[in-house]
Amino acid sequence: MTGTLRPVLLIARREFASRVRGRAFVVGTVVVLVLLGVYAAVIATIASGDDTARVGVTGPAIALTGPLERAAPTEGLELTVVPQPDVATGEAAVRAGDLDALIGGEPARPRVYVESEPDAQTERVIVDATSSVARDGFLVARGVDPAALDAAVAESGPVIVAAEPPDPQAGQRLGLGLAGAFLLFFSIQTYGAMVAQGVVEEKASRVVEIVLSSVRPWQLLLGKVLGLGAVGLLQLVVLGGAGLAVAGAAGILVTAAGLVSTLVWVVVWYLLGFALYATVFAAAGSLVSRQEDTQSVLSPVTITVLLGFVVGFNLLTYDQRGTPITVLSLLPPFSPLFMPARIALGVAPAGQIVLALVLTIAFTAGVLALGGRIYANSVLRTGARVSLREALGRSRG
């Protein structure tokens, strides 16, 4: 057994080393990492942009200090109220950029001085504060205690009883699920195509004839799948780790709930999915001998996967528990893409996970057997494209 697997491991190591050291892998990974860094910087800039304001108050409008400070948190604004000695001083501070606005005059209908136009959040806070002052004045004039009215209103209202309480981490789970589905799709498509291109390159250069003088076709096929699968897994881990770091730095991912289990499932389904698709791509690539013909044999596979991904991605966004996405996540060609996402969302029962695993493993075994036969019958045939009937004939290797 060791002697049988040794060529497989040698081929896998060669494929891994040549791809990882290649310019395409390094440049592609660095470009994506740079884009993630730029995205993090943009998010950080937006997050720290307009959520703070400095507002000056002067004259009778100083009475608005308390209402302004109470209204600001409801609008998501960090507000600093700065008393000003007079209107002229406050207006000069606005023109100098030290204040975003100056409020003066009567509290119920103040005069707001700004450089150009008020920020939408700041304007809403001022409106809330002046409305509060006007209401309190109206109530006091009629002998009603505003605090007592507020207390009575606070104790009223409906009591919501939910059969299924909302998940406070639903947004994070959805983000992890969609990100995992996209990374798996990207990696399988990219490195599955590399397997096919590598097969065609070796056929065109006749290198495969030399290699197959020492190893059997299935050993060469398995070595390629394992080697390029390891490359894809490495890039998946690097990009996934960087994405999680960016999400944490941007405040999008604030807890680690379900994170470890999601990552484990992504890796498990990636390995199954890559074994499945890489074998299909390799078998398809072995049917042709020229790079310009490669796309013609890969198109049916890539279009099928792309259509399934687009449909499933939209279903995950709008209906994670529906029958369509459930069925799609159980079908072996698409289980590696969508079952880890449904697991991350917490909507996949254990029975469905086990069923999807069993179906995918069985389907992958069948694809490996069929793909290996096609590969063995086609990889040494150069020139014209090999028909599927010829490729499925009795193996000579």
From TrEMBL:
Predominant location category: membrane
Domain of life, source organism: Bacteria
User: Where is this chain's protein located in or outside the cell?
Assistant: Membrane
UniProt keyword annotations, A-Z:
Membrane, Transmembrane, Transmembrane helix
The record describes its membrane topology as:
Multi-pass membrane protein
- GO terms of molecular function: ABC-type transporter activity
List, alphabetically, the GO terms of the cellular component aspect: membrane
Sequence intervals crossing the membrane: 24-47, 174-196, 225-257, 263-285, 297-318, 338-371
Report whether Membrane shows up as a keyword of the record.
Answer: yes
Q: Which Pfam families match?
A: ABC2_membrane_3
| ABC-2 type transporter transmembrane domain location | 25-371
Which InterPro entries does the record match to this protein?
Answer: ABC2_TM (IPR013525)
Name of this chain's protein: ABC-2 type transport system permease protein
Organism of derivation: Actinomycetospora succinea
